[in-house]
Amino acid sequence: MSGRRLRLGMAGGGEGAFIGAVHRMAAALDGDWQLVAGAFSSDEARNARSGAALGLDGARVYPSLDLLLEREAALPEEERIDALAIVTPNHLHAPMAIAALEAGFHVFCEKPMAISGDEARAIAAAARRSGRQFALAFTYSGYPLIEEARVRVARGDLGAIRLVQVEYLQGWLSQPIDTGGNKQAKWRTDPARAGMGGCLGDIGTHAFHLAEHVSGLAAASVSADVAIHVAGRRLDDDVSALLRFPGGARGVLKASQVAAGEENGLRLRIHGEHGGLEWAQMEPNTLVLRWLDRPAETLRAGGPGLQPAVAAQFRTPSGHPEGYIEAFANLYRAFAGSIRGEGKTAHPGVADGLRTMDFIEAVLANAGGDRKWTDIGPGENA
Question: What is the pLDDT of residue 311?
Fold first, then answer.
């Protein structure tokens, strides 16, 4: 597969959808992928308009995912899609991912992995049986300075980790727009389509994944409070959690979609015995390192002092900001590398999906029960 662009199909993400366009931009950025097929909407007219707007051959704009998989699999190997991007509401992730994997296609799926732990484990089993790659859109792990932070923690720069603090604050659901016709809000607050968690599944999983990814620690237990602030809403819109890690480290996680005035306030702080670091998604080109015995350091995207592998993730010189689309593109580039067998390529996948589903289940069990602490499940070993 080296030397050619990989062919991508897409499920969902049609006219009016936000995240489908993000996936398409990210996949196209480095020239690794070409979108050639899709089943963009269950609405026939919207599906056709979406395919036409993207310049696709009408014969490869399919009215359903089943038909897409059937007809793409029947094409010659040099024509059919290599992978399917799933950019639908959560309740469709498992059936679509399993069907695509069983049809012989790699999968890049939006998060959370599924709407239940059982569904997530079914996806994991399908991925094992198929031998295909499965990637998950935990976008923020694609930021180069997040990788810089992860490397520095892993090699012991901060010493033994003591504190992990992560917050993701949004304000867009502060009013009941989910009952007022906002399509994105409506499905995210619908248990049938979003799954067990509202804010918890939508952005709490991002925060949890980032905390574990950078700290290198797997939280053992959680003590949580889950709230619904908007009257009549059926899923949580605000989550607070304390985390305990093996070795004694402690964590605090806050995720809210009713923090009025906030945009996408994802912020991570990690402290060890010798120093700490801080990164914020709305200022993603800066990583601050603070020390007990010397002045603080500020690392900048594309600037000096970065690890060689991290520097290779940037596309522009220092001072030319890179952000969300570029971070997403790093995941698609790594996904392409995994499919091509290009050695060590890192992107979130099955283990990350199972882990975050265990987190959702543990938070909800703890918040709904009378136990002070609830163990977080085993993730990949489930």
Answer: 85
